[in-house]
Design goal:
The longest helix has 29 residues, at about 1-30. This protein has helices at about 1-30, 40-45, 80-85, 130, 155-165, 180-190, 205-215, 245-270, 285-295, 305-315, 330; strands at about 65, 90-100, 105, 165-170, 195-200, 220-225, 235, 240, 275-280, 300, 320-325. Strand 7 and strand 8 form a beta hairpin. Helix 6 crosses helix 7. With about 350 residues, it is α/β, with parallel strands linked by helices. The protein has 11 helices and 11 strands. Strands 1-2-4-5-6-9-10-11 form an 8-stranded parallel beta barrel, surrounded by 5 helices. The protein has a two-stranded antiparallel ribbon with strand order 7-8. It is about 40% helix and about 15% strand.
């Protein structure tokens, strides 16, 4: 009897696995796969894997990325923050991009201004002319050092970073389809971005249409549990506040989360031609890193602020991490921050 039960369960597991493989195989027939960018371009942009550093110590390795320009050290997503990163020796900047009411691409993270400014304006409903007047330093702990810090445009940010030879992660925060042509036009205006910038987002559709139009653009996809259904996530406390109070809409978003989580390592990464994935630090384990590496995809961790966590990701897992502060970085890496 026991042998029959075990045999049935093994057959059931085998059938489910075969069915999953069939789903992925059939889905690929109906989707146009975008080829990944040239490997040499990717290596020039993000360097060799950190696992190779001991054997090739003179090569380029991307170790630390300043998340929002290290937003704990200076007002996040600001030109002054990016400049401070350069002075501290960190030449890889992650910043966020969204659109104003008049479709001006600006470097800003939230939907509203109240977390960083004395304003409750909704950014997507505010004209660029009005946003230029707002000081985003007023709530920062070091605000007296950065008085009258303004929201920068995407173009002036890219100009400054290219001039300073700082690599960049352009994180798209809007689902407005107009951002696709804006990014494509940006790469036409500044061709050097192909070897200096990664485009990333939580939205796979945005990444797909960008790479389908220009497969040379190096892209990543950001992911965390409950990204559709909840505004935040922490391994200790679980999912944060629900995005919707409507129970049916919340259940639908939960379904989307489950589907997205299942598809990402099986189909999505392949269709998009991803070079890397940006994963929430609480979901990363040695197995997760190894599984993605087997697919030819790098793993980067966000957001890593505690010195012990930095040591773990840098020395044990040997992967790049994004951080809000560059304080103490010299104790994590023996060489440069790049």
């Amino acid at each position: 009897m026991l042998n029959r039960i075990v045999g049935f369960q093994m057959a059931r597991i085998f059938t489910i696995r075969q069915y999953n493989k069939l789903i992925v195989k059939e889905a690929r027939k109906f989707l146009i796969k975008v080829p990944p960018p040239d490997e040499d371009t990717v290596k020039k942009l993000i360097g060799l894997p950190l696992t190779e550093e001991s054997e090739n110590p003179t090569e380029y390795y991307m170790k630390t990325v300043a998340h929002r320009g290290a937003g704990l050290d200076a007002p996040e997503n600001s030109l002054v923050a990016f400049d401070l990163c350069s002075k501290k020796g960190c030449n890889i900047i992650e910043f966020d991009v969204t659109l104003t009411a008049d479709n001006v691409p600006v470097v800003f993270h939230d939907k509203t201004l109240d977390r960083v400014a004395d304003s409750e304006k909704v950014l997507s409903k505010t004209l660029w002319e009005d946003l230029q007047k707002i000081d985003i330093s007023v709530r920062h702990p070091y605000r007296e050092r950065f008085i009258n810090t303004r929201i920068p445009t995407l173009d002036e940010t890219v100009q400054q970073l290219l001039k300073a030879e700082q690599r960049m992660f352009i994180d798209i925060k809007t689902q407005n389809g107009k951002i696709i042509d804006i990014i494509l036009d940006l790469y036409e205006k500044y061709p050097s971005l192909h070897s200096m910038a990664v485009v990333t987002s939580f939205y796979p559709n945005i990444i797909y249409y960008i790479r389908r139009s220009n497969p040379k653009i190096v892209c990543s996809l950001a992911w965390r549990p409950y990204s559709f259904a909840n505004v935040s996530y922490n391994a200790m406390t679980g999912p944060g506040e629900r995005r919707s109070t409507n129970i049916l809409k919340h259940l639908f978003l939960c379904l989307c989360d489950n589907l997205h989580e299942w598809l990402l390592p099986r189909l999505t990464y392949n269709i998009l031609g991803l070079s890397m994935v940006l994963l929430h630090k609480d979901v990363i384990s040695p197995k997760v890193v190894a599984d993605w590496q087997a697919k030819g995809v790098r793993v980067m961790a966000w957001t890593v602020n505690h010195p012990i966590d930095k040591q773990y990701f840098a020395k044990t897992l040997k992967i790049t991490y994004l951080t809000d502060t560059l304080t103490g970085e010299s104790t994590v890496h023996s060489n440069s921050l790049e």
